[in-house]
Amino acid sequence: MVDVSQHELVPEHTVLEDDELEEVLTEYNIDRTDLPKIKRNDAALPDDAAVGDVIRIVRDSRTTDQSVVYRLVVE
Amino acid sequence: MTNVEYDVDDDTIAVVEDTDLPRRLKDNVYETLEDRGDATVEDADELAKAVETRYLDTRVDPLDPVGTVSAQSIGEPGTQLTMNTFHYAGVAEIDVTQGLPRLIELVDARKTPDTPMMTVYLEGEYATEREKAHEVVWKIEATKILALGDVSTNVADMRVQISLNEDTLKERMITPDEVAGIIEDSLGVQTVQQGTEIQFGPEEPSYRDLLQLVEELRDITFKGIEDISRVVIRREELDNGNEEFVLYTEGSAFGDVLEIEGVDASRTTCNNIHEIHRNLGIEAAREAIIEETNNTLAEQGLDDVNVRHLMLVADMMTNRGEIESIGRHGISGSKESVLARAAFEVTVNHLLNAAIHGEVDDLDGVTENVIVGKPIKLGTGDVDLRMGSTTSGSGQAD
């Protein structure tokens, strides 16, 4: 199987810890269900991610240096 | 202290790093300062402050209708896109849909593009040696019987005769045995093989069956990937002056190609956003949408469309973890408001269904409020201003 995370189109995906998640949600003042979604069977999802987890994605941004976004894992 | 690769002194770095600028702009500031050479710390401070002010000024204001602005910013140049469907793209004489049809294809999120193609990068010696690169080509390009030899029908004996070309076989690394085996497996006939000659025929002598067999024989893929009809090999120059071989394919099978030995699975791409989504995930699909829309516009000389608009489109299309089209089957069709949906396409159906299901419209969005003639809740429309009824008197007003 090909290591998808090595592809240049795929940014870094990491599972967010609970306390970090709290910080993010308070910062934006949102619920976790307001976040963009990522499917459970997504090819780039880390192996240890489960439904309900939030994934932190660090993209090389076109407009700034790096941009950090979050996605909620859904069925 | 952050590492700065420009030749400026520490005080200058401190001043610039202190501002609220993104990395890229800071680097631009350093570059300018470096070019000046004689800039003092005060000059640096002034410059950095000026850039920062301008940067903060140009950020999107709260309640700005970014979606509408994006729609207009893509829509206007869109009127100048060519309506010609086909056009050979500069590289590698491969037919690719461009201009308006391609843009429509992307935002409609079609399952397969009109002209699927892949750009296959190679790794190691596969990228530098032509022989090796060709090995990969034969693993990818679909090889049909007509490429391997001549087919003739002997009507008197009711036999199909194939005489294979030995050179081609050697080049494509396939033996007559293998060819015969594949024919037996896929047509269910017994073959007689002598050297490079292969013969077979229908069980019962029948003219129709014979022709049928020839038809089916032509469709068999002996080597390579069925969906890929043509591969063009090109030598391209790298940034560091070296050269490498790159393959361009007509037709795509992204997942299969990534697995092939010699293919660089970190750079190879295709123009089908669904294949990218399936194999690399939703984030890669987002990147691909931006890249493809941007390239389509740039190809037509419309690269002054700000990439932020395309990023917004891509963000919307990938928001739910799968690729959704813009339009009534996708994003517009899943809007909360009945009136907003009805305003887009097939008005009557939406209104009728809404009536049957007793839907309620809360008039929260923009379109709904335009329809009923209320101020929209955007920009200055969202704030209520009232003339002060109490005197602020002592001048404490701010």
UniProtKB/TrEMBL annotation, chain A:
Domain RNA polymerase subunit H/Rpb5 C-terminal: 2-73
Alphabetical list of InterPro entries matching this protein: Arch_Rpo5/euc_Rpb5 (IPR014381), RNA_pol_subH/Rpb5_C (IPR000783), RNA_pol_subH/Rpb5_CS (IPR020608), RPB5-like_sf (IPR035913)
Broad class of enzyme this protein falls into: transferase
Recorded GO MF terms: DNA binding; DNA-directed RNA polymerase activity
GO biological process: transcription by RNA polymerase II; transcription elongation by RNA polymerase I; tRNA transcription by RNA polymerase III
Presence of keyword Nucleotidyltransferase: yes
Pfam families: RNA_pol_Rpb5_C (PF01191)
Protein family per UniProt: Belongs to the archaeal Rpo5/eukaryotic RPB5 RNA polymerase subunit family.
Cited function: DNA-dependent RNA polymerase (RNAP) catalyzes the transcription of DNA into RNA using the four ribonucleoside triphosphates as substrates.
PANTHER family: DNA-DIRECTED RNA POLYMERASES I, II, AND III SUBUNIT RPABC1
Entries under NCBIfam families matching the protein: PRK09570.1
Classification via HAMAP family: RNApol_Rpo5_RPB5
Protein name as catalogued: DNA-directed RNA polymerase subunit Rpo5
Organism: Natrinema thermotolerans
Lineage, top ranks: Archaea, Methanobacteriati, Methanobacteriota, Stenosarchaea group, Halobacteria
